[in-house]
Design a protein that fits this description.
Length: about 100
Amino acid sequence: MRLKLVNRKIKITIETVDHQFKIPALSLNLAWLLIKSGVWQNSLYVKRKPEIRALLMSNKELIINTTKQLMTMLNACEPFVIVEVVSKTDHILIELK
């Protein structure tokens, strides 16, 4: 029997008194690729911050491998709410779909 491969997505919704933002669902695979690209292409911002560049360069493989493991584990999960913050005027929801 083959396992069913599911490509879960992260959906972010932010509602305030004045605005409502619904960020389109982002697949975990795409999120991982963006994170991986960001770590490898770290030369834009970190040129001005040598300590951040050194931290990223020394931990690049660890960051990429840990993120990939996290995305793999999340892909295997059923949908759930990752974070939900509710106040009198605001509502923030980050969920795995």
